[in-house]
Specification:
With about 240 residues, this protein is low in regular secondary structure. It has one domain: Pectate Lyase C-like (3 Solenoid). About 15% of the residues lie in helices and about 5% in strands. It contains four helices and four strands; from the N terminus they run E-E-E-H-H-E-H-H. Strands 3-2-1-4 form a four-stranded mixed β-sheet. Keywords: Repeat. InterPro entries: 5peptide_repeat (IPR001646). This is Thylakoid lumenal 17.4 kDa protein, chloroplastic.
């Protein structure tokens, strides 16, 4: 299934080949509301949560001017890595949301080697992951909003149903990664290797989609799902 390329309209449009079908808008009774989630939290699937969050993110972005591209020249100044902290390279979740806001210091995973770890359902929002090795990590249902992960390795990682909006993932490697049903709105993948990645059913705006489609590495077939990389992102051949 191709990515859901979202415009400013009421409904999301999934496009796959010649067939088209609409995903209900935020006003549809088929979309899980926050009230429904509070009444029946056990019955809300990861896919429904991702869909709800995608709607909220895109609704907020609709109030901003169209086609506003993030300034790729922005410089980030972070404190030095605390290499004396032996527990630094550990996945820790926050139950409050926006993980860094719930901690007394930055969630620093820079240059950490965490290949094959499991971060399913974790709140990693705002984490610093620059130059780290996160290959084959399970990020299913994880919240990764505003993550800074330039020049990191995510080969074979599974981001299914993850919320990855407004993240910075420039010059990182995502060979064979799975983004099925993930929220990617406002995230930057400039210069990243997307070979064999699967973008099926991901949520992103028109402008985000156009930038990903221009990536020359957007090709191949995902070794796990069998999805054609370029087709899964709703890009033309």
């Amino acid at each position: 299934m191709a990515a859901a390329v979202v415009s400013q309209g009421d409904a999301f449009m999934h496009t796959s080949g010649a067939s088209k079908f609409h995903v209900p808008s935020l006003r549809s009774k088929n979309v899980v509301s926050p009230q429904m989630a509070m009444k029946s939290p056990i019955e809300v699937s990861g896919k429904q949560v991702a869909s709800l969050v995608a709607g909220a993110v895109l609704l907020g972005s609709s109030m901003l001017p169209l086609n506003v591209e993030a300034d790729s020249s922005l410089k980030f100044n972070f404190p030095p890595i605390d290499r004396k902290d032996k527990d630094r390279c550990t996945f820790r979740s926050s139950a409050i949301g926006q993980a860094n806001a719930a901690r007394d210091k930055l969630y620093d995973l820079r240059e950490c080697s965490m290949s094959g770890k499991d971060a399913t359902g974790f709140d990693l929002a705002g984490a610093l992951m620059q130059k780290g090795d996160f290959s084959k990590v399970k990020f299913k249902d994880a919240v990764m909003s505003k993550v800074f992960a330039n020049e990191a390795t995510f080969d074979g990682a599974d981001f299914s149903n993850a919320v990855m909006d407004r993240g910075t993932w420039r010059k990182s490697s995502f060979k064979g990664a799975i983004f099925a049903n993930a929220v990617l709105s406002g995230s930057e993948f400039e210069g990243s290797d997307l070979t064999d990645a699967d973008f099926s059913d991901t949520y992103m705006g028109d402008f985000d989609n156009k930038k990903i489609c221009k990536n020359p590495t957007l090709q191949g077939t995902n070794p796990v799902t069998g999805a054609d990389t370029r087709a899964s992102a709703s890009c033309r051949k």
